[in-house]
Amino acid sequence: MPLANTLARRLIDCGTTSETLVGIYLPRSVESVAAVLGILKAGGAYVPLDTADPVARTQAILDGRRH
Predict the structure, then answer these.
(1) For 1, 32, 55, 62, which has the most beta carbons within 10 A of its beta carbon?
(2) Taking 60 as the threshold, does the pLDDT of residue 16 lie above it?
(3) What's the pTM value of the predicted model, to 2 decimals?
(4) Element (H, E) at 27
(5) What is the per-residue pLDDT across 28-49, written as a single tens digit (0 to 9) for each?
(6) How far apart, in whole angstroms, are the C-alpha atoms of residue 22 and residue 48?
């Protein structure tokens, strides 16, 4: 999957490691599947963010706060 490979290379270039959490803020689609695969190929872990959630909840997740 070319999109997943491109994302994986980009994430590795940005320093993604096994300790890195990468948020995915996309509606369910082929692109979101490619994003998950790219993150996993880069060695990171993905955090799915629901586009239907209120902005405050998404921000709390990104800030590492309890929601």
Answers:
(1) 32
(2) yes
(3) 0.86
(4) none
(5) 999 999 999 999 999 999 999 9
(6) 9
